[in-house]
Each structure stands twice: as C-alpha cells, then as structure tokens.
Amino acid sequence: MTAAIETQSGIAGQQARAGMPAHHAAIFIGLLAAGLVAPFLLYPVFVMKVLCFALFACAFNLLLGYGGLLSFGHAAYFGGAAYVSAHAAKVWGFPPELAILSGVVASAILGTVFGALAIRRQGIYFAMVTLAFAQMVFFFSLQAPFTGGEDGIQAVPRGNLFGVLSLRSDFSLYFVVLAIFLGGLLLIYRIIHSPFGQVLKAIRENEPRAISLGYRTNRYKLAVFVLSATLAGLAGATKAIVFQLASLTDVHWSMSGEVVLMTLIGGMGTVFGPIVGAAVIVTMQNYLATMGAWVTVIQGCIFVICVLLFREGVVGVLARWLKKPL
Amino acid sequence: MQDGVILAAEDLTKEFKGFYAVEGVSLNVRKGQIHALIGPNGAGKTTCFNLLTKFLSPTRGRITYKGQDITAMSPADIARLGLVRSFQISAVFPHLTALENVRIALQRQRGDSFDFWRSQKVLSQFDDRARELLADVGLAQFETTLAGDLPYGRKRALEIATTLALDPEMLLLDEPMAGMGHEDVDRIAALIKRISADRTILMVEHNLSVVASLSDTITVLARGKVLAEGDYATVSKDPRVVEAYIGAGHG
Ligand SMILES: Nc1ncnc2c1ncn2[C@@H]1O[C@H](COP(=O)(O)OP(=O)(O)OP(=O)(O)O)[C@@H](O)[C@H]1O
Ligand SMILES: [Mg+2]
Description:
heterodimer, A: mainly alpha, 16 helices, B: alpha/beta, Rossmann fold, 4-stranded antiparallel sheet, 9 helices, binds adenosine-5'-triphosphate
C-alpha cells in the first residue's frame, strides 16, 4: 500500500540534504495559513476537534504506516491521557500546560509497558494484544473512583496558560491547539525523516533482513510504539482541555477503530494523509450528527468504498498522480 | 578451537515436528576459505544457515564462532560479531532506493540509530561509500531506482552490496547467483573471489561450475546429513554424492 508513496523517495532523499523538499515545505506553510484563517471562517471548537483527531491519526500512522505495526488499542493512550490531564486540571488544579504534560507522560508510561509486551507478538496477534490492553484500560476507566464512571470527568477548567493567558475563550485556546498540532506534526515529520525513521522503514519492509544487518529490531519497534502512544496521548490530553471533558468514549474500542479508519481513508504511510482522513470523519460526524446511527453506517460504506476503490487513501492516490511522496 | 577454524558446528540438529531437516551436522569452516555447502533440493542447506545465524534455534548442537559459543545468541548480535548472512529469497528493502538499501547497512557504523530527532541529512556521509559498493556489483546507474523495481538478478547483486557494506569478517551466502544471467554470474563470481581475499565465505550454490572454480572446501548435504566433504575433485568422484544428485533428479 505504501508503494506509491515511496516511489520518489530517491529524489526526496536528495532534496532532504538541503532540508525539507520544497513541496513538503509548501504544504506545511499551507497548513499554517489555513490554520490561521480557519477560526474566522469556521466554528473554532469544530476546527480544534479536527486538529486533535488529526494529530491522533498522525501519531497512529507513525506506528502503522512507518513501523508496519497495526495497533487496535490506540484509544488507551488517547483516552488514558485525556483522563489524566482532566484529573490533573480539575482535581490537582494544574495549569493547562502541566495538565497536558501529565497526560502525555501517562501515555508514554502506558505505551512503554503495553508496547514491551505487545511487540513480542506478530501481525494479528500483535493487534489482538493491543486491543486486549485497551479493553483493560476501558474497564479500569469504568470502575476506577477518579474517572467518574459513566459520566467521565466533566467541567474540566481550561485555566490560564503559563499562569497568565486565559484559555476560557475558544479563540485564544484555538491558537494554542494549532501550535500543539503543528509542533506534533513537525516532530512526526522529523521522526520519519531521521536515521531512526530510515531503520524503521527497513524493518517495515523486511524485518529478517534488518536483523541480519545487526539491527535489534524489537527495540526499534518498541521505540516507535512509545513515540506513537505518547503523541496519541498529546492529542487526547489536548482534546480533554478543549472539550473540558474526558469520558468513556475516549477509551472505547470504537475510538481505536475510528483512528484506523481516518488513517486508511487519508492514506497510511503518507505524512499528510491522516490529517485529511481525520477532517473527513470529524466533518461527517458533525454535519450528519442528526442522522444518529446512520453516521456509523455511512462511515462503514465510505470505508468499504475506500478499501475497494483506492486502497492507498486520498493522499496516497494524490501522491501517485503527482509522483511525489506526500 | 581447532586450528584455523573460524566457524564450527557440532552435532547441529533441527527437528520440525518429528521431521529432521538437519541432523547431526558437524561443520568446520576454515578462516580465509570459500567453503561451499551443496546438496539436492530440500537437503537442509538453508536450514543450516538459519541455525548457524540463529534465525532458527537448534534442537540440539553447539555453534562456535572465533572460539566463542554463539549457540544462545540472538541473530542481530551474531551479525554484530561479523558473521553476516544473505537470504535465498531476494531480501531487499523494496520501497527504498538501491542507494538507501546499502546505506541502511552502512548506517550500522553509527551504532544504534535511535536518534529520531536528528535529520537524515547525517546519513549523506555514507553516500560516497554506498556508491562505491553499488559500482562494485554493477549497479552504479541504478542508485535512485527503487529496489523493488530492479530485475531479479540486480536485486541479488544489491543484496551482496548491502551485505558487503557491513564489511563482515565472514559471509554466509545462500544461493547468491540463483536467477542471474551469465554475465551477472561471472561478475558476481569474480566479486566473491575478490572479497574472499580477506574474508571467510560459506556459500550455498547450485551452479556447480561456480562451486568448482571458487571453493576451497565443499560439504555435501543430503536429507539433513553430511554426505561428503573435501575439495571438488574428491567430492565429485564420491559415488554417494553422484547417487544423491541423480536420485534427486540432478544431472
Ligand atoms: N519451518 C519449517 N517447518 C517445517 N519444515 C521445514 C521448515 N523449514 C524447512 N523445512 C523442511 O526442511 C527441509 C530442508 O529445507 P531447506 O530449505 O533447508 O532445504 P535446502 O537444502 O535449502 O533446499 P533448496 O535447495 O530447495 O533451497 C525441507 O524438506 C523443508 O520442507
Ligand atoms: Mg535453500
């Protein structure tokens, strides 16, 4: 599925010597520009929701598209971080930056423990183990005293950023979320285009060969698992501050499924695909909300059409047309 | 350690659910030699390679490399000792370019590459060496071609370049010339001869004229057991070897 994406990676490799290839730099500038005007044209909370899920999907894609590992339990890190940051902000009175940081640290720890156990398994068994761990987190969230059971943690205070800038207005919060999203995306971009990312691609392509070259591949897989879980945590923690809510939805298995859907629709193994996928799914959920259960059916249909017609996802197909990795 | 022996296996055995793919194989590879492992299809040659490099765990037996017992080591750690293998089925990284393939091996000189925060620009320091290695196997003009798009023979050549990029003391090559045209076979044979000057090579190969011209010692395997060992003249005259090959449908 990643064939088309890497087709021009030789050229990309050459351009990389001079920094980011021009078309990637252009996309980043475009995203920044779009991000800056979006809250004037659209409802800021809606755009923030898109940004949080886009970051979540990009984090997931780092693991699936570049590490070749399919996790069915990424809600554990997204939702786990949401609970921790909501608790930190509400009960411990942490300012938003520290509340988010707490969530990120929690997901990093969770990712390290679960990842270390899961990477011992391959393929579908790996996916099943990650799902099992995520279900454990779900039942913990349902039962634990501080998670609020069915209600979740509500009315989380947004607080003042660094103790000074009030985030009560959606508008000021928006630019913080935009900065977090772009920062996270740049970090993921760098990870993909680092010496580490290069080894990761080799392992994805042919693990036995990577081993025969002396790479202890399990350590690389664990590293990318932890990075992915941590960034998913960043997305979840930010989401908790935006919506002032952490709930069972965030740790539910359907959340794990949704992020797979976003990544596949946008194009797994492309840098920017998951952003498109997240935008499509969140938009659908928002505008078709009145249709209730039909949203799920429509989502399912889109998924089936995607898989049948363009397996590379929207951006994957685009990359093939343009003959440029996106 | 026996004199001059770099890799030794004693009583190497691998059982797959009651079927012995390799049974009681003892093998001594001498430093600096080209040692060929031959035998009919299904004789257990690849399984032997998998055992020697620990891609499979032996049911029984002991492996020593340079006097060190490596029977319990992980395959990656064995590669780090300088004992590097290739695969029978072409093993390239298909969505990376030929240059990037070789660079993955060269990158090992940096130790572990966990530095996810650094730009891959740092890898361009290996580009010149990678180009040299590609030129050595006749792939100079394919530098930017995706490995997956290369014809089969070229893929095999790329694998050899990648293996050589590690500058290993000992190479295990599993049918390095399978699927290659005449011209490529000659070039790779010359390359193997050249690199063997300061390396030890254990090689599985079906092309018997290549085996005859290159190898110092030949071990013949049949049905998981060692049938004969010696130089080409000795081995090719051995009636059991002739029978095993004819019995398996080889000429
Ligand atoms: N993982 C496995 N499970 C069960 N049987 C196996 C396994 N791997 C190999 N075998 C069997 O062991 C025997 C030896 O296989 P091996 O691949 O080592 O032969 P080979 O000498 O390399 O043959 P070829 O010349 O065809 O490459 C074969 O009969 C094969 O079917
Ligand atoms: Mg074989």
